Amino acid sequence: MLKKLLFYDIMNKKILKREESVMPDTRFITEFDQYLFGQGTHYDLYNKLGAHPMTVDGEEGVYFAVWAPNAEAVSLVGNFNEWDENATPMERLEPLGIYEIFLPEMKIGDIYKYCVTTKAGYTILKADPYGFQAELRPNNASVIADISDFKWQDSRWMKKREKFDDKKDPMFVYEVHPGSWKKHEQTEEDVDGFYNYREMAHELAKYVKDMGYTHVELMGIAEHPFDGSWGYQVTNYFAPTSRHGSPEDFQYFINYLHQQNIGVILDWVPAHFPRDAFGLAEFDGTCLYEYADPRKGEHPDWGTKVFDYGKTEVRNFLICNALFWLEKYHVDGLRVDAVASMLYLDYGREDGQWVPNIYGGNENLEAIEFFKHLNTIVKKRNPGIVMIAEESTAWPKVTDKAEYGGLDFSLKWNMGWMHDFLEYMKLDPYFRKYNHTKMNFAMVYAYSENYMLVLSHDEVVHLKCSMIEKMPGSYEEKFKNLMAGYAFMTGHPGKKLLFMGQDFGQHREWSEERELDWFLLEKEPNHQLQLFVKELLHLYKSNKCLYEYDCWPEGFEWINADDGDRSIFSFVRHSASGKNNMLFVINFTPVERPDYRVGTTCRRKHTLVLNSDDKKFGGKGKRRPKEYKPAKKECDGRKYSIQYKLPAYGVAVFKFYCINSGVRLCMDLLKNILKNY
Question: Is 0.70 topped by the overall pTM?
Fold first, then answer.
């Protein structure tokens, strides 16, 4: 018996036919697709499920497929059939319970939903879990889109990305909420004032390049119904939010930033999803994507659902979603939100509200395996991308390889450093001497993980005050304090992240409802702070000593970590070559130290490359030498030292050539071996 076999030509978006005297699966979704999906390894599943424009038998239309195994029936509804729940039934595929249909009359831009009839007999309208576009809120239907036709022009960046090393290369990230970075004047016709992705690309790239950031990290890109969630309550995991334009517009955004040599990182939320009736919650009338037991499937504090990481199809959904953003949109990395909430079964729960694992512990063993699988596959398929964990506990081996028992993330947010740093910076300078260890303690564990130092959006909301308003002292002293803090952060080992507005001293707490207070740059102190941060960023990018040894102790050396009485920190960042090492001296008090002396690691001249007392930074602008020759005078336990008139809240950074102590030790040993030989 001759059968018409259908084969999908991905390049031309056509289904090809041929006749054979065999009887394999004739559907677009094959038995092999279902096998891979059931195994949790169909990494390109978004090419099969969802809505896909194509041509069948010479007819143009759209193929739809959705996973709803526990549904009694599924139909397609939309304007095309006047939302008639009975007009367009879909065909069920076994054994996984995927429903499919091809409709010739459908086209790009049409809206649709799936009408799911549950076993209990009621119907629910659901947006497409794999839909590439969604309506602008408050509407929530899925929109047929084609993301395959965009002409990418970032090949140079993508080739360079393959060699990117997140341990050795510079990363100073600018965290951005697109809806509130800048806004158009709000009118009756444009009540939101949102920038389109295309115009935002040019504005943002210009600012980021000028300042010297290496990457942007975008909040709230995946579609979400509520602005106040900041994008952390996702309803459409494969759709960039329509607030700023179409999927093609978002592709343009990333393409343009890559052309400007700027990386793009997305916030990604696999930890939970909202209860919205049109979303993933109880998708087919049962707990399909979430754990069925509310003690595992719900977050009491957040009112959200928790993905069932033990279900292969759910893991597949999340992993192929991560790959979707990395491969279809050329995103350079994902910052994974709320990792701790996934790892601990008792996270945010009281006794009796959670279920122990099979060994009686509080670890979510299924989530652990999910992370190992996720990070292994995405990094293998996309060399040079970064996976960043927002993990707020002391969970071990977050950034260690999966084969060594780790979760295999590239970097981990250093929340411990952030909290200690902020607590110290908020103190009246008089009391800082009693809290000196808050600033040096992070070096005790600095190399236990591969860290990123962060001052994120979470720290400037909910009555926590903006960064500048956290600072003690007079109006002028607040800016001096913050300059000193940013200098310490820049010199400290670890990749870096600043939230928008922090680099120029935004006074008001951040709100998603309004744009940043850019008018503040007309004020001298704010402009001076921005210039100082800009100087730090360009200093960072142009000197390897500040990033290439972030993950190895050879790159950092305390000169004096214990000068608590004066609240002064001095340390050296070493380069691998011995060239362009940097000595940081930072005074965290309003007391000037005209007789200050600091030990040095060698006798070579030190060149002053950053001085916070410069007039352009709001300092006194006193003339001082550019070069300092260390004298043979003991200080800080060193044979040589230099004298420097350290201003109140003064920051001084010196550049010098000197092979670091670790390398020196090795060379001395080698010399002795050769001498004895």
Answer: yes
